[in-house]
Amino acid sequence: MILVTGGTGFLGSELLKQLTDKGLAVRALKRETSEIPPIVKNITLIEWFTADINDLSTLEDAFDGITQVYHCAAFVSFNPKDKKNMFHVNIDGTSNIVNLCIENNCRLLHVSSVAALGDAKKGRKINEKDFWEYDAKAHAYGLSKYEGEMEVWRGITEGLDAVIVNPSVIIGKNAGFNGSGAIFKLVKGGFPFYTNGATGLVDVVDVAKSMILLMEGSITAERYIISSDDYHYKDLFTEIAKAFAVKAPTKEAKPWMLGIAWRALKFFSLFSGSEPSITKDAAKSSTVLSYYDNSKIIAETAIKFKPVAESIKEITQHLK
């Protein structure tokens, strides 16, 4: 039987849909307070199991009869306040999953992130041979995903059958205005600024499809970047604005402007009690030029990625 962690999340729910569309029975983990997304709410092939990846007492029971595990659960944040919780979930939680996979002889597919690959080396795209290099100023999310991935590599040295995927920014209509959907909300609202950065994007459908293809294959002890296209933020925002029929951002937010913005928002948050909309880590990430090499996953699975331009059209049509 198959176990999926993070089953109520954006990626986890899409994965559950694709697995059950193939007629496969799946056990999916959810926390006590989590709501089941509409996309998978009425699928009878899913057995919902309430457990926390940081609570071994309940997690152990979830592995009964399991042979394959998709580990999608993660804590994503660019707020320094979340560092402790993020490390607890992304590192300690992953360690628990790895140990139980070894104990129960399960094949593991671990969802890491391109954030675990570090910054680009000058003059070339980031590939699977790149690893995060220590940087005292690096954001906590990237470090947590790197350390979490290291737990999987540790398990592999102990005999774990595992494969790792490193998706870029995952987009899709079912994100709504949350997560990566916040980008669409920002542009739709007439945000006038863009940053001189670039990143990779990929449709959630293709990420889940790649994961299933890798799990069903025989490859082990490998990692794969899952990314469709690289986009400069100006081009991305312009394309989204065009699809929403709103004015595209025309003003470049310089690094010094972002520096003032995150400091000011942090200061005001002390009085308002609300979380700042821009943090130091988010501001820094938005100015980095990151391009990703997806040739390895294409060679392994022959997957044909949906162009990001097509995904943008689908998402904006849905959000209208």
TrEMBL record:
- Give GO MF terms, alphabetically: aldehyde dehydrogenase (NAD+) activity
> In this protein, which residues make up the domain named NAD-dependent epimerase/dehydratase?
2-216
Q: Which GO terms describe its cellular component?
A: cytoplasm
InterPro entries (UniProt xref): Epimerase_deHydtase, NAD(P)-bd_dom_sf, NAD(P)-dependent_oxidoreduct
Record Pfam families: Epimerase
Q: Can you say what this protein is called?
A: Nucleoside-diphosphate sugar epimerase
Q: Which organism is it from?
A: Pedobacter paludis
